[in-house]
Design goal:
globular; 14 helices; cell membrane; transmembrane transporter activity; MFS_dom; Growth Hormone, Chain: A
Length: 358
């Protein structure tokens, strides 16, 4: 396998690991011992704050750290530094004795994970031609669905066998050994080249802000992230509280919709490589309308079979547009400055999503 595709596979696996890390709280809040330790007491607002703090840290990091990393660091250095912090946060989380401490830890975790997709986008652009980026973008986008599909049952299994404290330690080892090992082995170290003047933070951020169609792409990203975070945070509690599934069954069932989106995500990448770059927004239109229609039908349905059908359909159609967002940003962003627009876009979408939810 070519070295560049080994790097793509390594990034895919790292994204899977990162989403296991992100989704663990959605499952752990269903554990009575975890909830009692952090005084959550079935308080939905406090439970939601754990996700909110992560997203705020993630958004600020994507907005402010990404331009700094792009202008000063190689993507390998940035990813290895992030992974080390992910592992450290997981390792110290069980030692925290208060909800405030956990909220701070979630902010730090969000800050550490913020640059991931921007650095992934930069790697793809450094190693693939403009007419080849659809498939690697689609393949790495599969990590989102795979991470959620693996994360729900994995975290429930860990809690059943080693408890919530052991689950954090296991995830810390997963981050450090597997995630860090993959990046160390398969992403090439920066080559020593002649010194070139690198743009500073202000110049890099200004280039990102001038990306054409940034506002329209932002609206699509808001909708995409709203569906992703809303469904992944809501689904486990809905399955347990409304339909009274056990914790183990909840983890398995919550994975099913995200497994079904895998095929549609890769299909979207294949279609992107066959379309002209300016035609990529068609995937937003088609995927977005079908997702919205499925969600509307889900809201209006009463029969369990119809609820399941439309929930699964929404995930399939949502996955269709998964590879289109980075491809559109890559097409419109200034040459060699893809990471900052991607980071700024993600950050602004997260902030808008939290604002609309409030």
């Amino acid at each position: 396998m070519a070295a560049r595709w080994q790097g793509v596979i390594a990034l895919l696996l790292l994204i899977i690991i990162s989403y296991v890390d992100r989704v663990n709280i959605s499952v752990m809040i269903l554990n009575p011992e975890f909830a009692a330790h952090f005084q959550l007491n079935e308080n939905r607002m406090l439970q939601g704050m754990l996700m909110t703090c992560f997203l705020l840290g993630y958004g600020f990091s994507a907005l402010l750290l990404t331009p700094v990393i792009e202008s000063r660091w190689h993507y390998r250095q940035g990813l290895l530094s992030s992974i080390a912090i992910w592992a450290l946060v997981c390792a110290i989380s069980p030692l925290l004795g208060s909800l405030l401490g956990m909220l701070i830890a979630r902010i730090v975790l969000g800050v550490a994970e913020g640059p991931l997709f921007s650095l992934k986008t930069r790697f793809i652009n450094d190693n693939f031609a403009a007419d080849e980026i659809g498939k690697p973008n689609a393949l790495t986008a599969l990590g989102v669905s795979l991470g959620l599909a693996v994360g729900f049952p994995l975290v429930t299994w860990l809690m059943a066998h080693v408890g919530w404290i052991g689950s954090f330690y296991a995830l810390a080892l997963l981050n450090l050994l597997l995630g860090g090992g993959l990046i160390w082995r398969f992403l090439p170290a920066p080559q020593v080249t002649s010194q070139r003047a690198k743009p500073g933070f202000s110049q890099t951020f200004a280039l990102a802000r001038r990306t054409p169609l940034l506002g329209w792409i932002l609206l699509v990203e808001i909708a995409t992230l709203s569906y992703l975070w809303g469904s992944s945070a809501w689904l486990p509690a809905w399955l347990r509280d409304e339909h009274h599934f056990s914790l183990q069954a909840t983890g398995l069932l919550a994975a099913v919709p995200f497994l079904l989106s895998l095929g549609s995500k890769f299909l979207g990448g294949v279609l992107l490589d066959k379309m002209r770059p300016e035609q990529a927004p068609l995937l937003f239109i088609i995927g977005g309308l079908l997702t919205a229609g499925s969600v509307l039908a889900l809201m209006l349905s009463q029969q369990p079979a119809m609820l399941a059908l439309f929930m699964l359909a929404a995930n399939v159609f949502w996955g269709l547009q998964g590879a289109a967002i980075p491809a559109v940003v890559q097409h419109h962003a200034r040459a060699k400055r893809w990471a900052a627009p991607m980071g700024s876009l993600t950050a602004l979408a997260i902030f808008a999503r939290r604002l609309f939810r409030c």
